[in-house]
Amino acid sequence: MTNPFLQCIDLEGKWTLLLDFSNAFNSISREKMFEEVRARIPSMAAWLECCYGAQPLLHLGEHTILSRCGVQQGDPLGPLSFALALHPIVERINREVPDLQINAWYLDDGTLVGTADELNTALRIVEEDGPSRGLRLNRGKSLLYIPEDATFPFNPLPPEIPAVRSGFDLLGSPIGPRRHCEATMLKRVEKVQEILERLPDLQDTQMETTILRSCLALPKVSFALRSCPPHHIRNASSVFDSSMREALSEFAGGPLPPWSWQKASLPAALGGLGIRSATIHAPACYIGSLDQSRELVARILRRTPATTRHLDPALQDLAKSTGREDWTSIEEVDVPLRQCNLSKAIDQAVFDGICATAPDTRFRALALSSSIPHAGDWLNVIPSSALGLHLLDREFRLCLQYWLGLRMMEEGTRCSVCQAVADPFGDHQIGCGGNGDRIHRHDSLRDALYSAAQSAALAPRREVPSLIPESRSRPADIFLPNWKRGQPAALDVTVISTLQQLTIAGASATKGHALVVGEERKMKAHAEACRSVGVSFIPLVVESIGGWSERAADTIKSFGRLMGQRLGIPSADSTTHLFQRLSINLWRGHAAMWIRRFPIKSAVVDEWSNYY
Questions:
Q1: Buried/exposed code over 339-356 (b: 16+ C-beta within 10 A; e: otherwise)
Q2: In this predicted model, what pLDDT tens digit does every residue of 394-414 receive, in sequence order?
Q3: Residue 154 pLDDT more than 70?
Q4: Which of 108, 293, 455, 584 lies in the 20 to 30 Å Cα band around 55?
Q5: Which helix (H) or strand (E) holds 609?
Q6: Residue 599: pLDDT over 90
Q7: Of the candidates 305, 358, 395, 344, which has an alpha carbon nearest to the alpha carbon of residue 586?
Q8: String of b and e for 405-426 (b: at least 16 CB within 10 Å)?
Q9: What one-character-per-residue DSSP string does 518-575 give?
Q10: Mean pLDDT over residues 150-164, rounded?
């Protein structure tokens, strides 16, 4: 609805009239509703008259009144019935005032754009025909918008209707000069800030982060970004982004450097947190909205819409955000003009940027590895202890720090298990072999997959001995007696540390390099021996950052699909949950290793121990 107004409100001699009825839904005439339904949707008439034909008693204290008019709140047919009763008024305005630029209604909210004479005529029609349909115009709550540069500075309508020149809100979207759009957006940002201040009261960092990503980040302002020209709300968008960054810094336990903040602004699939920047994504939202509403705008305006003057600045911002300086016109944009596609182009540009500006090979390897499919599944879970998808506050905070490349300890700190000098980013701790924590992490992944195989009725066996004659090796963490093509299979789960010295150089150059190394190592050790006894060997390799090898991902998807078929739930849901459970188990294992190896208070270790 807002986009047509950007085509009309600044035309010479045109004004915008917003109409408001008094208690419209409770006063609409049921007789007129029945009359219009019989004429336009006769198949619905009998049911509607059955629902509203009687006059039930309404009790108010000692008084009893009859329910004779209006539609019931919550009735699915209520909005349609109301719109049908109102429609003859809209049609008469179209007939008698055909030159109105806009005659658009959203239920009881009417919006007209035209000259003073056209608006006065339309107003007379509304006040003539409305009362017989139970609709009485509330002049005091109606509004006339006169653009600041209009040649007639006076109110051309009855004086009871207030006039404004500073802008107005249409269905929640600010329309008018830049300062009005900015002020409206800032009010919304202030409300978000109030909620952000209360988030720590939950005392659950995983839950706080989930609410921030899903409810308080870009989704909270996406409507405004779609309906307001980006350059009109640039300052407010910047304030909003600063608020998101401050909140995330609180969750992570310290300020976020620019590289980490850029990484956090990426979706989880590209190694971020999904807290997208309103400033950067505003042009994608606005241009996508313009394109997707083009046909609707043409129907409302009854003509092909002209290119709005706000498009060029938005396109310039989009070209800058995507690094596509060749996008100087809409025709040159070589991706579909939908918000999701344009935002993906922006995300890819940001991802390429953090890879190019990574401080060293470790950070570049971290960026590439965290964008491997399923690496970020732990961030997409619903934090539920009952489903095994919840992390303790300390656990989640440590995982968040590692994911964003933040320092987790001081330089020169020694590992409390092996006494080696550990790096400040936590890489040593999740590769340290002391204390049996690596085995515990491995077993948690194996057990989750074993449980999934049981649910899929695959008759799995765990840690099968003597699979290879005259050998003490156990290549089957999970043995499936009847896998693909009826052949038994040995599944071997292995976690490879992405940022270890052996793989970090390759991981910084090629995404998934560590997976290739881990898979080749396992295949060399067990594939031939398993083949000799007629068993398929399937290494299930996962990087410490969370990404699974292609072979492992295909196997897990097969488990998920079979689970869904057996349990009678959508295969997509069972597969997603399985990947999320595995991801949470992996990162919970990381957290345990960090907690046991950091020089921290024993109470924190006790808290983790009690969790299990």
A1: beebbbbbbeebbeebbe
A2: 999 999 999 999 999 888 888
A3: no
A4: 108
A5: helix 602-611
A6: no
A7: 395
A8: bbebbeeebebbbeeeebbebb
A9: HHHHHIIIIIHHHHHTT-EEEEEEEETTSPBPHHHHHHHHHHHHHHHHHHTS-HHHHH
A10: 77
